[in-house]
TrEMBL record:
One of its GO terms (biological process) is carbohydrate metabolic process. It is found in: Cytoplasm. Its main location: cytoplasm. Belongs to the transaldolase family. Type 2 subfamily. The lineage of its organism: Bacteria, Bacillati, Actinomycetota, Actinomycetes, Mycobacteriales. Keywords: Cytoplasm, Pentose shunt, Schiff base, Transferase. PANTHER family: TRANSALDOLASE. NCBIfam families: PRK03343.1 (NF002881), tal_mycobact (TIGR00876). It comes from the Bacteria. One of its GO terms (cellular component) is cytoplasm. This is Transaldolase. Transaldolase is important for the balance of metabolites in the pentose-phosphate pathway. The active site is at residue 139.
Amino acid sequence: MTHIDELAALGTSTWLDDLSRDRITSGNLAELIESKSIVGVTTNPAIFAAAMSKGDSYDAQIAELKESGAAVDEAVYAMSVDDVRDACDILLPVYERTGGQDGRVSIEVDPRISADRAATIAQARELWNKVDRPNVMIKIPATPESIPAITDALAEGISVNVTLIFSVARYREVIAAYREGIQQAAEKGLDVSQIHSVASFFVSRLDVEIDRRLEEIGTEEALALRGKAGIANARRAYAVFQEIGRKDLPEGANVQRPLWASTGVKNPDYPATLYVTELAGPETVNTMPEPTIDAVLEQGGLHGDTLSGTADDAQAVFEQLVQVGIDMEDVFAVLEREGVEKFVSSWSELLDSMESRLR
């Protein structure tokens, strides 16, 4: 029994935060499922930008797309959809074994349309139909403008990975959007047991931003709080999940599990497994880059359920952060804006690179 298996026994599913054609064609993804107990995959624009800029795995398809006269956006999504569809097929046995909870592969809508509800739901629908696999999840960012599109997608029976959640206040809005979408789906007569969702809460990015501010403040009290905000924030979110995550769902509906994202540590002074061992608990997902997965397998360090019953201590950390001068509202606003901007930048770089290759 590996440490990833132990994590699963605590209630946390481990998904791989990476995908490339090389992983698929070489058998690497299948091997990770078999040997490292990986039960899902998440992608984002930065991941596809990295995958498509390396090696020659996509050359043949690029040549075909060039011959057909495909536009650059169309070409990038054609390749992305093919990768996600193939990954879905590889993970299908996991999906069937877990009743649809795991075995999932996520693909994200274009980050450039995150402020456009109509465009977001239109592309979510398009990606859902193009991948055409029951275990795909469409990633929609939790921006104020896109949250209604989350409800729209769920109401149509589309499984959704809600991404770029930073604050507990926004998370409450996400839970409400999920509840409304599932209720609408039930009213339409859809089988809500087949609709799944996760709420992706970003962890390490919060520590990066707050640690920087704490170091600028420089007092002993401030410096003592470094590395504590990300875990405390996620634990506060988990308390909200336990409080209202199951409320007012139609019969047969699944809960929307919290998913811990951005769990590779950015500060080398922190343990590589920090955002895994301290965020283990029932009905959660942790999507990790492969180095973090390997660190968990090698180091372990799990010490039981580290989520349940932690709300009071987590709230105390936040109160201390405010007391030393951290403006939490500004932190969350900055992170949400930069989160979208970073994905837009990665996507734009990929489009520019692909356009030159298609020409």
